[in-house]
Amino acid sequence: MARKKVRMMLNGSSLVEAVIAMVVIVIVFGIALVVITNVTRSSLSVTKATAQKVLDKAIADAERTGGPAPDQTRYSIEGLTIDQQIIPYWKNPALNVIRLSALNEKGDTILTMRKVLLDE
What we know:
The chain crosses the membrane at residues 12-36. Keywords: Membrane, Transmembrane, Transmembrane helix. This is Type II secretion system protein. It comes from Mucilaginibacter psychrotolerans. The chain is α+β, with helices and mostly antiparallel strands. It has one domain (13-118). 40% of the residues lie in helices and 32% in strands. It has a 4-stranded antiparallel beta sheet with strand order 1-2-3-4, with helices on one face. Strand 2 and strand 3 (92-103) form a beta hairpin. The longest helix is centred in the N-terminal third of the chain and has 28 residues, at 15-42. The mean pLDDT is 85.
């Protein structure tokens, strides 16, 4: 018996179409990864919330006491290093600017707050 050669034509995509589809998929996943990374980085973390609470308390204490003499101090509260700087406001003896920065263990600034205090 003689074998007959059967040629079947299958419809499919070419190599160029497959490569283009893969490039599109990689671009879409890349954009999604960038968006997720930015949202995660900019979201309010527990550390930022703790720093906000600590700095609010420090400013409230400074307002209650009328603000200390102009100086710079550094202290630690709740695992954060607080850098406090008090300077005169525009050479006005009745006003001081308090600048508080919360730093993490690595020394990176998490949050910075400034407020003008009135000496009474």
